[in-house]
Amino acid sequence: ADKPFFIAAPAPRAMDTNVREGVVVQRFGDRRWIVIGAEPGQVWPRLRDYWSTNQTPLSFEDPVTAVMETAWLGEAGSRNKYQVRIEPGLHAGNSEIYVVQVGEAFVADSSAPVVWPERSADLEVETRMLDDISLYLADRTDLYRASSVSLLAGRIDRQLRR
What we know:
Elements lengths: L22 E6 L2 E6 L3 H14 L4 E5 L4 E4 L2 E3 L2 E11 L6 E9 L19 H16 L2 H21 L1
Antiparallel strand pairs: 1-2, 2-7, 3-4, 4-6, 5-6, 6-7
């Protein structure tokens, strides 16, 4: 009797090399953004930690609209400024993070408030910042899980006490 044989199907490959558990860099055309498995309220303090860990000063932050703007940063011979927005994701419990970059060359007066364009002035610079933020957040997804579990455990505990 012949023994049955099986052909091993190739394992599916990740669509993006920057995929880490809980943090994905999405692409649509030349647009890129981060999707993270956490509520905006959980993402906000981690994003603030990102800036302080990198000793990056913020010139503006508004937790109500979930917008942060950096001061002008000297990077590789140029000066850049970033706006980061956190928005609720399409799926419950997810957030989307968008980065817009402007360079000093694109702004008439760098001491005046920036009128933010819809798209970054330099997509390469934007991509580097998005990748850096996504890696930082991916390394801390355990913190989101821990806080989610403790919130859930607290709710369950309260329900059991009734």
